[in-house]
Amino acid sequence: MAKRFQITLAGEAISFWAEPELTILRASLRGGGGLLSSCRSGTCRACRCRLLEGEISYLIEWPGLSAEEKAEGWILPCVAQPRSNLLLLRPAED
Ligand code: FES
What we know:
Blueprint: E1 5-9, E2 14-18, H1 24-31, E3 49-53, E4 56-58, H2 67-71, E5 74-75, E6 80-82, E7 86-89
Parallel strand pairs: 1-7
Antiparallel strand pairs: 1-2, 3-5, 3-7, 4-6
Bound molecules: FE2/S2 (inorganic) cluster.
Family: Belongs to the 2Fe2S plant-type ferredoxin family.
Domain 2Fe-2S ferredoxin-type: 5-94
Protein name: 2Fe-2S iron-sulfur cluster-binding protein
């Protein structure tokens, strides 16, 4: 069986699966998580979520986040791939 990770959206009772080569955004669109997106290239920040638990890696060297945001756990799911099971928190809508 192919390796895959479970991704859970905190506080929403939503989870979906992602193979390690899939971006978290693509997995959410396929699996019913429905994360917001626009550019899908790590620049617009529409997909921004906080990583509460787990490990990711990026497809690009410089995703559009400051060092402070990264330290706070913000990630860009459109250019991030899971490296473990993940617990994500999407920002509250204004
Ligand atoms: S969709 Fe634009 S940064 Fe993720």
